């Protein structure tokens, strides 16, 4: 009996977590959960598809909530509606700016450069403090200046 109750609790918690995580005050950051995501001109599957994202992990800014739909803005400033379940609250970021950026061993420009990354690289965002953010791409991690990451800071 206890095992069944515990299993029910786990399944219920797992099912509700994505919904609760997406019910926040706007604007907020999210990332694309799906390998393919349709951007629509309105908040329904009846509206025309304006763009198709094929970049899992791409950060987006959620700027409006309507039932199961989210009005998002992407790093290029494009806006449109996506179905909420295909977004995740996991924070991601994309490298922006001109030329390569370094991933440093420590949060300062005098520390060792571990790797170099180009604009357009998408990765997982960690904590940001004093203008530096933890950033990982695959198994490579370090610190990147916050101004080089879209998706870091206040939305």
From TrEMBL:
Q: Name one Pfam family in it.
A: SH3_4
Keywords (A to Z) from UniProt: Signal
| The keyword Signal is annotated on this UniProt entry | yes
Q: Which InterPro entries match?
A: DUF1058, SH3-like_bac-type
Q: Which residues form the signal peptide?
A: 1-21
Classify the source by domain of life: Bacteria
SH3b domain: residues covered: 27-91
Protein name, per record: SH3b domain-containing protein
What organism, scientifically named, is this protein from?
A: Qipengyuania psychrotolerans
